[in-house]
């Protein structure tokens, strides 16, 4: 950030009097420009036969890799509305929402992932504009080596673990970037 | 938003080609300025004797009203780090985190509240810079009529409800503004 989005003056990085960290401040109109992490919301969609709906990305990053439908929450939305909208946009699927399943912090990109469990409503799905294809996968067919993001890997892994234990929990954790392309999940308390 | 924070040119509200909603776009440097909801993280802190830690706000909005320690998540933080930092800043309390307790969407102010259950570590607490006082309350002493926000009211209410049932769940819901000063919780699935 170099210019004030309210008045166009040059901003400076300074710590406000009643604050404890530097912010972009406009001396001209006195606006303090706060920057905060963003929420990514998405759905783990289960079909009637237990298979899971994955989309193959038609956009960067991770073009061609498989993902669960998910994307940035928009102004005016709830997290569930965002998850349902992304599922409709990316996988052309209407779903019944079962509940929150995973909250992952990604501090290296300032994102908070919120993934919900859901069930495919009418059996129909398809490739939206941001997807090359959409398809249902049984557990032994999941393309584990071709998943787009570590958030997707851990969501699927925890889902099958919970399923084996006969109980779905709410999982929290931090996905920490170790080095380029290597990430580690540090699990928080599951509830 | 009126000016591009990257180059200072005037921005226009337009829908980008591959998008479906208007964004502030800079024709000069081609930056698309996305705006997204913010996360508020906080702690419900239980002392050894079961009493709950509340702070009386020394800042607007809701100066003088009681709240749980909570505030905006910062860049580079996890939700838990944000909740612990706010608890230290507002209530001078160090806590042991037990787990996620409530996720409330507030679409009228573009916020997502994430409240965690926690226990006071060493019995010490105090009024931070943004608090007039901090104090422990038993259930029958909670100042229900003087709580700062409906998020705080519902967090405390659901906490005591869960406690009476002998089990803490993760609660989700949307807090909808009905009219000035009147809000309603539309509960989502509890897990
Ligand atoms: Zn300005
Ligand atoms: Zn620009």
Q: What would your notes on this structure say?
A:
- The structure is a homodimer of 191-residue chains.
- The first copy, chain A, has 191 residues and is α+β, with helices and mostly antiparallel strands.
- Chain A has two domains: 1-35, Single Sheet (Ubiquitin Ligase Nedd4, Chain: W), CATH 2.20.70; 38-187, Nucleoside Triphosphate Pyrophosphohydrolase, CATH 3.90.79.10.
- The first copy, chain A, contains two helices and twelve strands; from the N terminus they run βββββββαβββαββ.
- In chain A, the strands form three sheets. In chain A, strands 7-4-9-8-11-12 form a six-stranded mixed beta sheet. Chain A has a three-stranded antiparallel beta sheet with strand order 1-2-3, with no helix packed on it. In chain A, strands 6-5-10 form a three-stranded antiparallel beta sheet, with no helix packed on it.
- In chain A, strand 8 (95-106) and strand 9 form a beta hairpin.
- The longest helix of chain A is centred in the last third of the chain and has 16 residues, at 150-165.
- The complex binds zinc ion (ZN) (2 copies).
Q: Distance between the terminal alpha carbons of chain A, to the nearest Å?
A: 39 Å
- Annotated CATH homologous superfamily of the largest domain in chain A: Nucleoside Triphosphate Pyrophosphohydrolase
Named at the architecture level, the CATH assignment of the largest domain in chain A is Alpha-Beta Complex
Greatest interface = A-B, 53 and 53 residues
Report the sheet with the most strands of chain A, covering strand number, pairing sense and barrel closure: 6 strands, mixed
* Strand/helix succession of chain A: EEEEEEEHEEEHEE
Shape descriptor of chain A: elongated
Radius of gyration of chain A: 19 Å
Strands side by side in the biggest sheet of chain A: 7-4-9-8-11-12
Helix percent of chain A reads: 10-25%
* Mean pLDDT across residues of chain A: 96
């Amino acid at each position: 950030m170099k210019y004030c989005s309210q008045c166009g003056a040059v901003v400076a990085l300074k710590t406000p009097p009643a604050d404890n960290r530097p912010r972009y401040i406009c001396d001209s109109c006195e606006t303090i420009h706060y920057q905060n992490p963003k929420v990514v919301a998405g759905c783990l969609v289960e079909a009637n036969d237990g298979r899971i709906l994955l989309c193959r990305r038609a956009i960067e990053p991770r073009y061609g890799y498989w993902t669960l439908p998910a994307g940035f929450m928009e102004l005016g939305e709830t997290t569930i509305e965002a998850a349902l909208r992304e599922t409709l946009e990316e996988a052309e699927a209407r779903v019944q929402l079962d509940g929150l399943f995973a909250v992952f912090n990604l501090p290296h990109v300032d994102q908070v992932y919120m993934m919900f469990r859901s069930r495919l409503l009418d059996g129909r799905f398809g490739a939206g504009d941001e997807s090359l294809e959409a398809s249902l996968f049984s557990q032994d067919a999941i393309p584990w080596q071709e998943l787009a993001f570590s958030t997707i890997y851990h969501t699927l892994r925890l889902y099958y673990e919970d399923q084996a234990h006969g109980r779905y929990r709410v999982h929290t954790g931090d996905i920490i970037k170790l080095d380029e392309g290597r990430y580690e999940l540090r699990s928080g308390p599951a509830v």
